[in-house]
Design goal:
alpha+beta; Cytochrome p450; five-stranded mixed sheet; disordered C terminus
């Protein structure tokens, strides 16, 4: 537990190995920040590292983290990372401390009451349905792009409503991604670099100015037109402090709106993208999730009352968030104290990494294994509250955690009811350091589930010679390169396209076997491919006028064994 410092009874915290003169540990943090933060647990429960000449004490014990966030929270301030966010967030709840923070939290809390979450869930459901409906079975989509668009659209519609706010929504879509990128970089950059006229700073400053101006404009109009609204902005404008009876000034409302947009977009979108990634890597988990969604939600849209019954979906979400948690949070000691027997001077920065904590094998056995069932096995362990802190804890815990959970579960259930997600072939997804580590790229292929009534194709060859239909009766297994027809649909002519040989670039991307105009390209034949006339059963016509066919008896292309035949994706080289 943190205690007032007692001279002679404590020692300085051990220094992480690899410190360089003047640079400290900056080089290691720059080259491999995630691995470096994870390695600190091997050197103690409190470890000092230097970022240049800036000393930081990193906490690797969940007990010490709980002590700082909850037990002795009054001894600590926000810290440097949050101060660096102040130029964008102003005096929002994200950056403030003390009495002002507590007052703001009291005034904002009603906006995140369970009753309002139910209203927000309707918006989330509409946006999730719009995202899901925009996909085409077998056509690759970028989950990073899709989840960010979903989260941004959901948050924007919940904050603003009506035609009056349409320019604000458009500006949010335009400027917020630029602001998010710039804030993450500025949080760790020296403050002296903020004013350099480099492209990054110019884009950030321009986007931030536009965003703040349009929100100020909407707030001014909300207060003058007398129209009754039921969005989140109206709730903030009408909020009153129960102790003082004072309302929130317009500038403060703007700062809080920006904070909500940031938290409700970046965190939710990234976590949802990683969840889809893990489902694609673990089809058995995806099938269990789909079964639960079919039972709880049925054929209709996801409702607010469904979320509490999606227990396995919640376990899947928690496990994905455990594996892909925020990278670093900071606090600042307001007075000299001891922590774990180590001296912490006044003004010292303390940091903890939820990412590293959640991958500690002492806290989570087999920490790199995606195992949603671990949350049911450990449901009765009270100590888990200390070990699992993706939303923080104590007085600074994320005020919108329930909001974020509803946003993610709604999208997860909506997509699972309609699609089976498979990873795009030949892609290695890497973690890119950020506030929450981002996927380097995340292309996935949605395959329409049979119950949706859409034509679909199983991209993975089956081992058995017979399978069970949805009604339970045996039916022949689909072979690679053939079509399957869902129940109650009209008969379709058998496919006339053969599976290409290795390296054959002539792949159909539609049921007719003819490339679409937007994706046509001159083929580069590989082994087993030979020119053929259009009348050949395995030929595909291309813009050059040349048709290509795969020679009979050649082995199937490795990429085509896993990708639907209408995918236009060429084989990617695997990253090192």
């Amino acid at each position: 537990m943190a205690q007032a410092e007692q001279p002679g009874s404590v020692v300085p915290a051990p220094v992480a190995p690899g410190r360089l003169p003047l640079l400290g540990h900056a080089v290691q943090l720059w080259r491999r920040p995630i691995a470096f933060l994870e390695s600190l647990r091997e050197h103690g429960e409190v470890v000092r590292l230097d970022i240049g000449t800036w000393p930081v004490h990193v906490l690797t014990s969940p007990e010490h983290v709980h002590d700082v966030l909850v037990q002795q929270a009054q001894r600590f301030g926000r810290g440097r990372v949050f101060e660096r966010l102040r130029p964008m967030f102003g005096n929002g709840i994200v950056t403030t401390d003390g009495d002002f923070h507590r007052k703001q939290r009291r005034m904002m809390q009603p906006a995140f009451h369970r009753g309002h979450i139910t209203e927000y869930a309707e918006v989330m459901g509409r946006q999730a349905t719009a995202m899901s409906s925009s996909w085409t079975s077998g056509r690759e989509v970028s989950m990073v792009t899709e989840t960010r668009r979903y989260a941004l659209s959901s948050v924007a519609e919940m904050i603003f409503s009506g035609d009056l706010s349409r320019p604000a929504v458009e500006e949010v879509h335009r400027s917020l991604p630029i602001v998010l990128e710039g804030m993450l970089i500025r949080a760790v950059m020296p403050k002296s670099l903020d004013r350099l006229p480099i492209p990054l700073n110019r884009r950030f400053d321009a986007a931030a100015t536009r965003l703040r101006a349009i929100i100020d404009q909407v707030i001014a109009t909300y207060g003058s037109d007398g129209e009754e609204r039921h969005d989140l902005l109206s709730l903030l404008l009408s909020s009153v402090d129960a102790e003082t009876g004072a309302g929130m000034p317009p500038e403060q409302v703007r700062d809080e709106v920006i904070a909500i947009m940031f938290a409700g977009t970046e965190t939710s979108a990234t976590t949802l993208a990683w969840t889809f990634h893990e489902l694609g890597r673990h089809p058995e988990v995806q099938e269990r999730l789909q079964a639960e969604v079919d039972e709880v939600v049925g054929e209709g849209p996801v409702r607010a009352e469904d979320l509490a019954r999606l227990t396995y979906a919640h376990d899947v979400f928690q496990e994905a968030l455990r594996l892909h948690s925020p990278l670093l949070f900071t606090r600042r000691a307001l007075a000299p104290l001891t922590l774990g027997g180590f001296a912490i001077p006044a003004g010292a920065e303390l940091a903890y990494s939820p990412y590293a904590l959640h991958r500690d094998p002492e806290l989570f056995p087999d920490p790199t294994v995606f195992d949603p069932d671990r949350w049911r096995r450990g449901a009765g362990e009270r100590s888990r509250d200390h070990r699992y802190v993706p939303f923080g804890a104590g007085q600074h815990k994320c005020i919108g955690d329930t909001f974020a959970v509803a946003e993610i579960l709604t999208a997860l259930a909506t997509v699972s009811s309609r699609w089976h997600l498979t990873p795009a072939p030949g892609v290695t997804v890497r973690e890119v350091p950020a506030g929450i580590p981002q996927p380097s790229e995340l292309p996935m292929i949605p395959i329409a589930r049979p119950s949706s009534g859409r034509h679909w194709r199983n991209p993975v060859p089956r081992r058995s010679s017979a399978r069970r239909s949805p009604t339970g009766s045996p039916r022949p297994s689909a072979t690679p390169g053939s079509w399957r027809r869902p129940p109650n649909s009209s008969p379709r002519r058998p496919a006339t396209r053969r599976t290409p040989a290795p390296g054959c670039a002539c792949r159909p991307n539609s049921s007719s076997g003819t490339p679409s105009a937007s994706t046509r390209r001159t083929p580069r034949p590989g082994p087993g491919c030979s020119p053929s006339s259009r009348s050949g059963s395995s030929a595909g016509a291309w813009p050059s006028g040349t048709s290509w066919a795969c020679a009979p008896g050649t082995p199937p292309c490795a990429a085509n064994r896993w990708a639907p035949p209408w995918s236009t994706r060429s084989r990617r080289s695997t990253e090192a």
